[in-house]
Design goal:
Elements lengths: L9 H20 L20 H11 L6 H16 L5 H17 L2 H26 L5 H81 L3 H30 L16 H10 L3 E6 L6 H21 L4 E9 L2 E9 L13 H12 L3 E9 L2 E11 L10
Parallel strand pairs: 1-2
Antiparallel strand pairs: 2-3, 3-5, 4-5
Helix pairs in contact: 1-2, 1-4, 2-3, 2-4, 3-4, 4-5, 4-6, 5-6, 6-7, 6-9, 6-10, 8-9, 9-10
Length: about 400
């Protein structure tokens, strides 16, 4: 089954009708481009002019749907118009077909047609002049250039401008898409950072509250209940203060309020004392060393989360915290007794280990956590190596 040509555009129909009516008006008025007495008017008279006029008007319907087909048929029609008295509208419609073929046709035709018409224009000037030796013969090439090369060149210029505009629009869309992707990634990273910060600040206090409240409920001892309530109150106040600080930072959008200072390794002593208050037997061995702020914050949070996990899950025994500078890295080791515990436990979701691993990954370090055998028995060990150098960058908060 033969393929059907697509329907012409409405504007193309208007162009075809306008050209046909204009040509008929000139034909009815008796206006022609050449007198019947010229030597190359092979078909004199008024009626032969109408055939190329109607053919070219029909070709205008194909100016965008099938531009090359319209140009080929139109070229045959304009050659026929040359051997008649001619119609000015036929010439104008042919120039439009030439323009449309370059503008709407395939890229190969768009670049080939201007070269071909340029060569024809040059040949139309040189060959007649060489044959007749008359300066007027050069006008043939000029007319050929005006009818073919001029519209083809104009179509190529317009096409290049449109393609440049389309490319610029595509680049703008791609830039907007990349910006949206960057924004989404930034939002995701910020949410993960906020989740880590909230977990590390609050989990320790809430775990202590849960464990001591369970102990107070399970033991019918006024002294034990009193001690547990003291610990619960201290952790509640501290946790609430840290929550308020974080909420204040999140709500402040003006930038006028300076954020609170990030914890440093100097605060490990206070962190360990708080863990001892909550019932852990903790020892701390920390070498004094200058490290970049991101590494210092990551090490503090890792120790804080490790102590929180020990409070929630560790068996009775000593918890060891060690920080040492080795081979350009800060090594953080936290070990706690591994095994079943008889006392109250706080539930865990595993988010703490994930947060520690994310912090270490952001700094390009190594992280490992799991049970190990030691001379004191089986322990749960958190071993972290954080690279320490002047180029260490990253926000691990």
């Amino acid at each position: 089954m033969a393929a059907r040509l697509p329907r012409p555009r409405r504007f193309d129909v208007y162009v075809a009708l306008g050209g046909l009516l204009g040509g008929l008006l000139l034909w009815g008025a008796g206006l022609a481009t050449r007198p019947r007495t010229e030597v190359y008017v092979l078909l004199p008279g008024r009626w032969p002019v109408l055939l190329p006029l109607f053919v070219l008007a029909g070709c205008e319907l194909l100016r965008r749907t099938a531009p090359r087909t319209g140009l080929l048929i139109g070229t045959a029609a304009i050659v026929l118009d040359v051997v008649t008295q001619g119609n000015l509208v036929s010439i104008l419609m042919y120039t439009d077909l030439m323009y449309a073929a370059v503008l709407y046709g395939p890229p190969a035709s768009a670049h080939r047609i201007p070269r071909i018409t340029g060569l024809l224009s040059v040949a139309g000037a040189v060959v007649p002049f060489a044959v007749w030796r008359e300066p007027e013969a050069l006008l043939i090439g000029v007319v050929t250039g005006l009818v073919s090369f001029g519209p083809a060149s104009t179509g190529l210029i317009v096409r290049n401008h449109r393609e440049a505009a389309d490319a610029a629009r595509l680049r703008a869309e791609q830039t907007a898409l990349l910006a949206e992707m960057d924004r989404t990634q930034a939002v995701t990273a910020e949410r993960a950072r906020m989740a880590r910060e909230l977990h590390d600040m609050v989990a320790n206090h809430l775990s202590a509250i849960a464990i001591h409240s369970t102990a107070a409920l399970s033991l019918d001892d006024p002294k034990t209940s009193q001690d547990a309530l003291v610990v619960i109150r201290e952790n509640s106040v501290e946790g609430l203060a840290e929550m308020r600080r974080l909420i204040g930072i999140l709500r402040d959008s003006s930038g006028d309020v300076e954020p609170a200072a990030a914890p440093t390794l100097d605060g490990l002593g206070s962190l360990v004392e708080n863990a001892r208050t909550n019932g852990l037997d903790v020892t701390l061995e920390a070498e004094q060393a200058e490290v970049p702020a991101p590494v210092e914050l990551a090490a503090y949070r890792i120790v804080q989360e490790s102590l929180t996990n020990a409070l929630k899950h560790a068996a009775p025994g000593r918890v060891s915290v060690s920080l040492a500078r080795r081979d350009g890295s800060l090594v953080v080791d936290v070990t706690s007794p591994y095994g079943d515990r008889d006392g109250p436990r706080a539930p865990g979701s595993g988010a703490g280990l994930v947060g520690m691993e994310e912090r270490v990954a952001l700094l390009g370090g190594t992280f490992a956590a799991g049970p190990e055998d030691s001379p004191e028995g089986k322990v749960w060990a958190v071993r972290t190596t954080l690279p320490v150098n002047d180029t260490a960058e990253g926000d691990t908060a």
